[in-house]
Amino acid sequence: MSRVYLTGYCFFVSQDGILGLGPDSMRIGEFLVSLDDIQVAFVLRPSENDLWRLFGDCFIAEDQVASLQMKWENRGKPRENFVIF
After folding, report:
1. Phi, psi (rounded to 5 degrees) for 47
2. How many CB atoms lie within 10 A of CB 54?
3. What's the angle, vertex CA 9, arms to CA 6 and CA 15, rounded to 5?
4. How far apart are CA 16 and CA 22, in angstroms?
5. Rounded Cα gap, residues 76 and 55, in angstroms
6. What is the phi-psi region of residue 39: left when phi exceeds 0, alpha when psi lies from -120 to 50, beta otherwise?
7. Contact 10, 58 (CB under 8 A)
8. Residue 65: is it exposed, middle or buried by C-beta count within 10 angstroms (0-12/13-18/19+)?
9. CA 79 to CA 73: how far, in whole Å?
């Protein structure tokens, strides 16, 4: 049996039921987002002046990345442009 240790990551379950591993600095109320043409999800934290702070990538199943995009579009929400720092 082999063991794998992922330092700096924690297990999470999103409000929509998506399971994954994300940065251990994640907090409740942050956003799990996927960017066009990228098959990786990211954690964003809202900040002042309509800016977003990027806290890192997430390990989620590829089909869940597509599910994230579809859920957003099915809610009638437009795609957004935003500033990340």
Report:
1. -130, -175
2. 13
3. 135
4. 15
5. 26
6. alpha
7. no
8. buried
9. 8
Token digits for 4?
């794998």
Task: Write down the mean pLDDT value for the chain.
Answer: 79
Judge contact between 54 and 42, C-beta under 8 A. Answer: yes
pTM score, whole prediction: 0.69
Take residue 56 and report the two structure tokens written for it. 């890192």
Q: What is the pLDDT of residue 79?
A: 66
Beta-carbon contacts of residue 28 (< 8 Å; ≥ 6 apart)? none
What is the rounded CA–CA span in Å between residue 73 and residue 11? 26
Region 31-44 average pLDDT: 80
Q: What is the pLDDT of residue 2?
A: 64
Condensed to tens digits (0 to 9), the pLDDT of residues 40-50 reads 788 888 888 87
